[in-house]
Amino acid sequence: MLKKDKYDWIIKLVLMLFFLWLFLLSIKLLGEVFKHYFSDNTADMIKYATDDPLVSFFIGILTTAIIQSSSSTTSIIVAFVGAGTISFNNAIPMVMGANIGTSVTGILVSFGQVKNKLEFHRSFSAAVLHDNFNWFSVLLFLPLEIMTGFIGKSAAYLTDIFVGGSGVKFNSPLDMIVKSAAKFIEISAADLFNCPVTEHVIAGKASNYPVYNGLLLTVMIILSLLLLFVSLNFMSSIMKKILIGKFERIIHKFVFNNMITSFLFGLIFTISVQSSSVTISLIVPLVGAGILSLEQIFPYAVGANIGTTITGILAAMVTGNPSGISIALVHTLFNIFGAIVFIPLRKLPIYTAKWFSYKVRENRLWALGFLVIMFFVLPILFIFI
Q1: Residue 171 pLDDT > 80, yes or no?
Q2: Helical H runs in 149-213?
């Protein structure tokens, strides 16, 4: 009997790792699809940002919501600022907007539990908590930045210290695990639908990917979301069986038992995988399953926000361009200042997330409305009207 239980546990662990890999692959693939289809348009949108800070801010939200990566958006902004295409001051609100846009991935992941009203209510609250922290930070610091320029000035001061240091490159383990598979799927689908694969240059960086048409885009989105929801469904089911009990107690005791360890885990894990979208997405189903609470994951989400900015700093330091380093540091300082203010005031974003999630429990259309309006309709209205 003990031997059977041992083998059963090993099988569950192997399946868990497989579906975790599939989950990470689906997020990577979905991000690559949107990034490659919209890359030229989003790059142009960033390039032609106006002097209006609100327009610049909503450009940051929309472009990041489309390509689902604040690191990618920030990298493009860093390149354009370094080349003098965008002014440093115009780029600051855009970086703040990128911080909000990246929350869309976690919200999409929460829809994987939409069939179960209770789990969806909890998982959506975890995803929207991350978004709330970003919005509250923007509501406080964007007006202050417009009036005083204190974040930009602080970043410029720190740049004077960093310039001259040697550039550091860091390869994400996440890319090593799923990048080849994602590229193989994307190229194979392009071949199937006779879409040419060519070299594209965005913000001075060249890469090969398909020339998308509407059919290929539709197929790739459906495939990505199918992989996401299937993997999430199996992963959640297996996680409940593995984590509830002994492992659940370990997680509570050593990771989420206090604010400091939760914050550091979010920070270090995100630096390691270079993606706050993945960091947040992994925790959403745990909250949905009732294993973790919003109070436990809030410092983790804040740490993830800071961790994801390190990629931009490293990329900017490799170029050695002072303006690029400054705008990358703006992203980091904005999140650090947000952490300093809202970790003590964490009840505000947590309460707001709980209130909205109860609305979602009453009617799940609230979640869809939130996703569409906050990340797409509102930015489009501010940018184009």
Answers
A1: no
A2: 150-162, 173-192
